[in-house]
Structures are given as structure tokens and as C-alpha cells.
């Protein structure tokens, strides 16, 4: 999973019917220091996150696993809100 | 999902038979400010998008989920037209 | 899918038996202007392409969908020959 | 698989229920010389690794294979602790 | 598939039991001119390759297809040894 910061919302009327009823956010991937990385993604929310939240999300086929009852065409899904990050080692060997 | 802008059409006669009848577009990935990113992709359309439209699309195995009745060899599929993007926070913490 | 240009052939005797009988090419990913991008890939051909052809190809698990009768260990497969590309808009909004 | 160094822990209360009971770490991808690469990931642990350990991990759908009894929404999972790396050739032909 | 050069071996005692009995190598992705690219990977071998060999390998879920009898948590698997590469065109149109 990767870290991300929810930054906006997507409004779309014409879309795949399997996406109906799901909230779509614009999200920025971030690192552990909340530095923005790469490019915004459009993500499906599953945990009630809101704009501004720090979240972790899955990409790829795993992005569909929270929806066991249907095959959602999503490749990026928020699966948790981050309460706290403990960085124990900075990894420089 | 990622954002994209439809920029052209692909004409192909020799192709995998499972792709017959599907519209193939050239699409440019874009960010939330409509800035072009990376490289053009060839995408399958499922929502009636046209050249010039702002869309969001899925990559990977999820690109096949809109086609529940057959296994399409697609790794990039348009699943929605974007009506509006609300950017609530710019994410700089 | 992405665009590519077939540039060479791979000869291999020791290989996964599921790849027996399939043609393996060296292919260069290209953009819509035929500019070479990134790194050569080894791809499985399914449409009778030849060295020099402009093709589009799928990556990921979808690369196995043209082979419905067996699970091919391929993550890059040519699924169509490009006859023509019509670029309708250059996407600069 | 790729190499990684466990650098921290993630605390999260609101998350996908399928992730309950699993340890989530912050991990830095590293190369064979333990040089840090790219961006930290949030990973699921399956082998009892701890902060500071050198591990190898799988990404993508394969990240769910250690959990045969349930579909975990994970796209990065630690599957082994590295005891030793023997670099036999530096690969320069 | 991509090309790679086997450069070393991984020794690991604590690992996912599904990886028991499989040889794990350190491999460098290379291009068609044997130039090293990107970062070393940890790969599972299926064709009896050895340190120094030029191989081609699959990434993603397809990396598990050579193991039809079990779900291996591998995202990078060697599936062939390269005997010869014929580069017919350099692709510059």
C-alpha cells in the first residue's frame, strides 16, 4: 500500500454502472513526511475518508478486494485512515 | 483511476478478435490541472467518450471488469467522463 | 494498451513449456509520433506481426487473455497491428 | 520480488476489516547494497519481521497469495527475511 | 517479458512456506545491448538458470503461472534462457 492525502472530489454522471454510489476522490500520493509525490489519482473510498485525510491505499487488482460482491473497475482504492506513523529507524545502514 | 484526455482514434484491422466492435482511442494521461503527463496510451472506451473529453480510466486487470461477458485483452479502459473536479485542499500540510 | 515497434526476434531453447510454439519478439515502446520510449520488451505475438510493424500491446495479466485455453506466463502480448492513427486534438486545453 | 528495509510502523483504526489483526509497516525499497530507492511503502508482514530487518517483498496481486483463506486488499507484502546475499557477478558483460 | 542478467543468490530461512524449495536469485534487468537498467530484483527461477545467464522473465500475476499446482507469492519469475537475439531493425522510422 502507499500513503496518500485526499485533496478533492470527482463529479461524474456518465460512468461505468458498477461505480454508481461510490465516492470518487482526487488523491495525492505522499511519502512518510507528507511530501507530495508523482501525480494525482482518482480513487474509490471505502472507509469514510474526507478531503484532507492521510490515508493508505492499494493499487492494482487488489483495489477491488474490498468489494467482494461485485467486480468494481477500480485500480486505486483507499483502505485505511492513518492515525499515526512511528518511524523507528531511518534505514541508513 | 487516473485522469486522461482523449486525443485521437486508432484504426486497426488485424487485432485480437475479442477487441472487435470496441472503439480504441489514443489518450494522454493528464493531472488535475489538465497538464499532460507521460506517454499516450491506446484505450478501450466504455462510456461513449469522444476526442477532446476529460475522462478517468483504469489500468491493469481491472480494465477488463466492465466487460463481464468476455475476457478483453485490455490494460487501459475509460470508465467515466469527468463533469467537474472540486479541489478542496492543495495538500500542502 | 501501448504502442510499440517490433525490432527483433528472440531465440530460446530452455523456456517454460507453456511458451512453446509462440513467437517472441523484441519490441520498443513508442509514442504516437513513433518516438522510442523506455526499454525494449520481450513480447509474445498473437496477430502475425513482423519486424518493423507498428503494433499495440497489452501488459500485465491481460497479456494472457488471448490464450483462453492455457495460462501463458506472458506479461506483454501484441494484440493488434495499427493501420492508422488519427490525432484529432493535441490535448492542450 | 524486491528488497526492502523495514523502517517504521503504521497505526490505523479505521481500515478495511480484512486488514484487522495484520501488522502494517513502513518499508523502504533498497538495492543489493542497501541503498534506499524510491518511496516508502506501507506493507503487510507475514514472516514476523521487525523494524530494521532486510526483507524481500512481493507487489501486485501476488501480495495476497500468502493469505489463502481470505482476499486481503494488500498490494505489498513481506514474504521473507534475507539471511545473506551472494553477488557472484556484477553483471557487466 | 523483460530481459535480465542473473547476478547473485538469495539465502533466506524465514520465508513464506510456498517459496520452500525454490531458487531465489538476484537479477539485474538489462536491455538488448546488455546494459543494466533500474534496480536489482529478487526472482524465482524455473528453467535452471545460473549466475551470469541472460534470461527473460515475467512480472506481475503472470509470474505465478509456471506453478500451476500452487499459488506462489512471486511477482518476478525467470521463464526462459536467451540463446540469441536478432535485432532486425533499430526501429528509427
What do you see in this structure?
The structure is a homopentamer of 93-residue chains. Chain A has no helices and 6 strands. The mean pLDDT of chain A is 87. Chain A has 93 residues and is mainly beta. Chain A is globular. Chain A has a 5-stranded mixed beta barrel with strand order 1-2-3-5-4. Helices cover 0% and strands 40% of the residues of chain A. Chains in contact: A-B, A-D, B-C, C-E, D-E. Strand 6 of chain A pairs antiparallel with strand 1 (2-11) of chain D.
Question: Largest interface, and how many residues on either side?
Answer: A-B, 39 and 37 residues
Percentage of residues in DSSP E strands of chain A: 35-45%
Number-wise, the strands of chain A total 6
Question: Cα-atom Rg of chain A, whole angstroms?
Answer: 14 Å
